[in-house]
Amino acid sequence: MSNPVVIDLGSESIKAGFAGQVPDAGEPRIITPSLVQVHPRGTQANGNSGGRVMPVVQRGSVTSMDRLDAMLHYLLYDQLGWEKGDEGSVLFVEPLFVGKAEREQLTQLMFEGYNVSGLYLHDAAALSLFAAGKLAGISVDIGHGKVDIAAVSEGVTQAQGAARMSFAGEQPCQHAPLMPVPSCMPVPSSMPVPSFHAACVFQAET
User: Fold this and answer.
1) 7: pLDDT confidence band, cut at 50, 70 and 90?
2) Which sign, positive or negative, has the C-alpha torsion 159, 118, 61, 82?
3) Scanning 55, 70, 114, 169, which has its CA 20 to 30 A from the CA of 11?
4) How far apart, in Å, do the first and last CA atoms of the chain sit?
5) Angle CA(18)–CA(56)–CA(115) in degrees, nearest 5?
6) What is the DSSP string of 11-73?
7) Average pLDDT value for residue range 105-112
8) Distance from chain centroid for Cα 177
């Protein structure tokens, strides 16, 4: 794989696509709900076999590395066409306040589980300004489960002055269901939800 894959892990949806190959509509190549199906032991893992639907990301934090592993396999191999032995590099759009332990777990998963040729983690605040052709400014990232605000100077996010609000797009959708807000519309049921066998997940969550 020559072009790296860019992955943006959100609380409501996860976006992924190849760098430098943005479609004409300006949207990522893959947009999928940030959900996976967790199946009991012995149940075949497929999108139609039932099971509990669980989130991969909540308020900027990965809920389970096993769920993230299932989502990444779905994105990279099933949707973007990676093949075993011919993996490429990945850029993760990282929210603010990601802990060292979570970053280390993700790094270990990508190199040991996916044999990536390169891995780059960069915070969303700086990347948002880069996309606008700026190296300095204020980034306000309004998501489904949180709002992150940070100053960026010379391409570096000033973490000491960053702030997070837990009130975001999810709350208006819950408390004002009659408001005509397009983003509050549910994800179509026809969209596939990645699934996986849950034996290791139950061990991790008990």
Assistant:
1) very high
2) positive
3) 114
4) 38
5) 50
6) SSEEEEEETT---TTS--SEEEESEEEEE-TT---STTS--EEEESEETTEES-HHHHHHHHH
7) 94
8) 26
65 vs 57: CA distance, rounded Å: 10
Residue type, 4: P
d(CA 202, CA 11) in angstroms, rounded, equals 22
pLDDT on residue 5: 93
* Residues sharing a CB contact under 8 Å with residue 206, sequence separation 6 or more, in sequence order: none
Instruction: Kindly report, residue by residue over 115-142, the tens digit of the pLDDT.
Output: 999 999 988 888 888 888 889 998 888 8
Does residue 24 carry a pLDDT above 80? no
Give backbone dihedrals phi and psi of 66, rounded to 5 degrees, phi first. Answer: -70, -40
Residue 109's pLDDT band, with cuts at 50, 70 and 90, is very high
Burial 185-198 (b: 16+ CB within 10 A, else e): eeeeeeeebbbbbb
